[in-house]
């Protein structure tokens, strides 16, 4: 899997509140583009919509330290989805056989490796699930 080199840096913030505010500023900008569900368009899937329905719920299921680490890569993940044409690693969801999980690799401007995961349901709709670093 070839990682996509983003121009975006990790989000700035010394604590969770600052980091969350910086991420929400970016998210509100995306949200204002539409009257309905917020989405971004993916270069890999020929400008298909990628929705944010599950991202925030999934993020708040994590521990605060893990949330802080994942939220740092939010801006880079948005750029990766919008601009990357690199092939992801795709596999069936082990919990639900009718869903596919696509994992894209990326490098931030600083050179940090991260992954962005997108879920595709049986109706071919795609949802931005998570962004994280390798363990």
Word description of this protein:
The chain is of the alpha/beta class. The protein has one domain (4-30, 39-132). Helices cover 29% and strands 27% of the residues. It has four helices and seven strands. The protein has helices at residues 16-31, 55-59, 64-71, 74-83, and strands at residues 4-5, 39-42, 48-51, 89-92, 100-107, 113-120, 126-132. Strands 1, 2, 3, 4, 5, 6 and 7 form a seven-stranded mixed sheet that branches. α1 (16-31) packs across α3. The longest helix has 16 residues, at 16-31. The protein is globular. The mean pLDDT is 93.
Main pleated-sheet profile: 7 strands, mixed
| Number of structural units classed as domains | 1
Question: Beta-strand percentage?
Answer: 25-35%
| Arithmetic mean of pLDDT | 93
Count of helical regions: 4
Radius of gyration: 14 Å
Q: Enumerate the spans where pLDDT stays under 50 for 5 or more consecutive residues.
A: none
Structural class: alpha/beta
Strand tally, please? 7
State the end-to-end CA separation: 17 Å
- Write down the overall geometry: globular
Q: What is the helix content? A: 25-40%
> N-to-C SSE series?
EHEEHHHEEEE
